[in-house]
Amino acid sequence: MHDLKLHDLRCFEAVASEGSFQAAALVLNRTHPSVFAAVARLEEQLGLTLLDRSGYRVSLTEEGRQFHARARLALRDLEHLRSYAGQLASGEETVLRVVMGDVCPRPKILGLLSRFFAERSRTRLHLEYEAIGGPVERLMDAEADLVFHRANPSDPQLERIDLCQVGFVPVVGPGFLPFDREHDITPEAMRPFTQCVIRDTARRPSPENFFVIDGAHSCSTPDHMMKKELILHGLAWGHLPEWLIEDELRDGRLISIASRHIPGRIETVAAVRRRDRPHGPVAEALWLYLRAQGRDQTLEDRGSVP
Length: 306
What we know:
Number of strands: 11
InterPro entries: LysR_HTH_N, LysR_subst-bd, WH-like_DNA-bd_sf, WH_DNA-bd_sf
Keywords: DNA-binding, Transcription, Transcription regulation
Helix content: 40-55%
Protein name: DNA-binding transcriptional LysR family regulator
Organism: Mesorhizobium shonense
CATH topology of the largest domain: D-Maltodextrin-Binding Protein, domain 2
Radius of gyration: 30 Å
Domain HTH lysR-type: 4-61
CATH superfamily of the largest domain: Periplasmic binding protein-like II
Structural class: alpha/beta
């Protein structure tokens, strides 16, 4: 069998999809005889009868149906390959690697990404989740193009766009503590109780302490959703992002124990990238888009009434 011609495959696919040689010719902007000849040539090369021409309208034979299904996949893959080559030729990235950190308000960040990539379907978003030191480590190890996390603003290697602030609140479930909460609760008073912490995904964990009480028993979870479930079930206490527990704080399923001894904290969530690495067209477009979003958020904050 000689090499198949792409033109012949496309003519056959058009006839099979449109139901006639004339309709296929119109779709392909070809003449009826040229489409007819292309399909006949394909059948001869394959040694198969793909079309039943005995009726008023042509129809696929059983072999034709099976071959058509594979031919459609092959033509689609070819179009993807053509598009991929065009991206490479233009320098446009085919994949953008993004990491979301554990401090991120996921609905907000995912909404930003969804709106941006909806208009850039040729670039695939490779999205991962990391915690504590993991996001910045992936960035520094060249395993991510961009991360959404907190970052040291004084690090000269990093460039950042502040997007929002997230409050973290120390909470317990009702009945978790056997003593009165009217007085300020101290770390010493909480030492006998299990404290839930997020597991650091960094290969080289940071020594930074996020109010983990020395000497207290602790349990770890991979994310805040699991941490929230443990606290709701009375198995531990810990700090949770306020956006995640607004309803539970409102209806009393979770209780804040924030005080001067066990404070909450505020984290600034930022888009962060390396200064010392080149950024492709899509990565740069995403950065400009996020900068505009961060500027809009700043204006909104300035316009709000405390």
